[in-house]
């Protein structure tokens, strides 16, 4: 086996891109501990913090996204794209990767474009049921496309598609053994149901507002809630709950031990990002999904609908959430039969060992 083989993994912007990328890198290291893995992300985005925290090196590109409305800001976007292409060329020249991998997000465009021009094998991973614009463009020149949903030939050349599922964090395997540990960690009553409310790593405004506008309902219920507000809404959430005298609502900016949070949850309330949905499938947790309206091609709604069609999740529209979300969640967590059905159906959608499968495809490209 060739020693010190080199991989570049590019992309990011959101946890939905970052955590699968880390999972792929970890799977590659398991297969070849001596492998040299470099990440390339977008400067100023969360990957510049999360990737080093996971033990990997990362370089940032100045790339940013085009504004949808006509604006002079897009001139700056094009300048940043040109600068990113130049920097990507230098990264490829210096690092000399055996394979370049794109996981979606702005940074994957320049790296994979340059890699393809240099005849370096390339692989992209599409997490969503509706392909992102960057991956649709890259698909024409890439060698392999790993997807999480069936029917993706409507976006990509069928002969390049491999159904692998979405990689998820390693610690989410076998969470059913961690419930007691989770109850102690969060100081929860084992006799009361638990709702895990995920406001995202940065914060989902609609979900957070739905919670704090119905704090009285939560406080008066026989339900416990773990509420991750996200960075942008944490201070406001603390202010809203400062006078709330209750033990059944626990507020966090970010939950670091998601394995324990999933282990204790009877119901999860969340956006419908591809990474989160893959985690919910793997841990087989009933969910109410509130798709974000602020994403490209409304792909979160399509992600959620793919589960709703299989009776594997409940969908609440963003514009309805403030009025109905908390009442629906409090009612659903008491409906044991429906929770059981949702858990069974969503668990059937899980594709396991996704990171290892993708790592295997990358190594196959190397060997070719």
Description of the molecule:
The protein is of the alpha/beta class and 368 residues long. The chain has 2 domains: 6-166 and 353-367, 3-Layer(aba) Sandwich (Rossmann fold); 171-347, Glycogen Phosphorylase B (Rossmann fold), CATH 3.40.50.2000. The chain is built from 15 helices and 13 strands. It has helices at residues 15-31, 47-53, 73-95, 108-117, 133-138, 179-186, 205-212, 215-219, 234-241, 258-264, 274-283, 299-308, 318-332, 336-347, 354-367; strands spanning 6-10, 36-42, 57-61, 99-102, 122-126, 144-147, 161-163, 194-198, 224-228, 249-252, 267-270, 287-289, 314-315. The strands form 2 sheets. A 7-stranded parallel β-sheet has the order 3-2-1-4-5-6-7, sandwiched between helices. A 6-stranded parallel β-sheet has the order 10-9-8-11-12-13, sandwiched between helices. Helix 1 packs across helix 15 and helix 3 packs across helix 4. The radius of gyration is 21 Å and the shape is globular. The two termini are 13 Å apart. The model has no long low-confidence stretch (mean pLDDT 92).
Pick out its properties.
43% helix, globular, six-stranded parallel β-sheet, single chain, 15% strand, alpha/beta, seven-stranded parallel β-sheet, Rossmann fold, 368 residues
């Amino acid at each position: 086996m060739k020693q010190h083989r080199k991989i570049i993994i590019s992309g990011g912007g959101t946890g939905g891109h970052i955590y699968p990328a880390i999972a792929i890198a970890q799977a590659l290291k398991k297969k070849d501990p001596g492998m040299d893995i470099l990440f390339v992300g977008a400067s100023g985005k969360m990957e510049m913090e999360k990737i080093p925290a996971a033990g990997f090196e990362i370089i940032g590109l100045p790339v940013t996204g085009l504004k949808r409305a006509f604006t002079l800001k897009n001139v700056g976007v094009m300048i940043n794209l040109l600068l990113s292409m130049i920097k990507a060329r230098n990264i490829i020249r210096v690092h000399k990767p055996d394979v370049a991998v794109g996981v979606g997000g702005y940074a994957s465009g320049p790296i994979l474009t340059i890699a393809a021009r240099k005849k370096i094998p390339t692989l992209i991973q599409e997490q969503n049921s509706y392909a992102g614009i960057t991956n649709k463009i890259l698909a024409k020149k890439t060698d392999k496309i790993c997807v999480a949903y069936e029917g993706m030939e409507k976006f990509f050349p069928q002969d390049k598609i491999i159904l692998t599922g979405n990689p998820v964090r390693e610690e989410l395997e076998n969470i059913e053994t961690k419930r007691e540990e989770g109850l102690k960690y969060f100081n929860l009553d084992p006799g009361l149901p638990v709702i895990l409310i995920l406001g995202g790593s940065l914060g989902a405004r609609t979900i957070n507002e739905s919670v704090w506008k119905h704090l009285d309902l939560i406080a008066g219920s026989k339900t416990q809630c773990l509420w991750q507000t996200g960075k942008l809404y944490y201070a406001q959430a603390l202010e809203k709950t400062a006078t709330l005298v209750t033990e059944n609502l626990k507020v966090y900016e970010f939950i670091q031990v998601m394995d324990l949070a999933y282990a204790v949850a009877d119901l999860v309330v969340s956006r419908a990002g591809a990474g989160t949905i893959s985690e919910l499938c793997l841990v087989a947790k009933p969910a109410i999904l509130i798709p974000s309206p602020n994403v490209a091609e409304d792909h979160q709604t399509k992600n959620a609908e793919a589960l709703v069609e299989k009776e594997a999740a409940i969908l609440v529209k963003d514009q309805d959430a403030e009025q109905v979300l908390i009442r629906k969640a409090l009612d659903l967590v008491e409906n044991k039969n429906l929770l059981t059905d949702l858990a069974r159906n969503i668990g059937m959608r899980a594709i396991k060992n996704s990171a290892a499968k993708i790592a295997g495809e990358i190594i196959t490209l190397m060997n070719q």
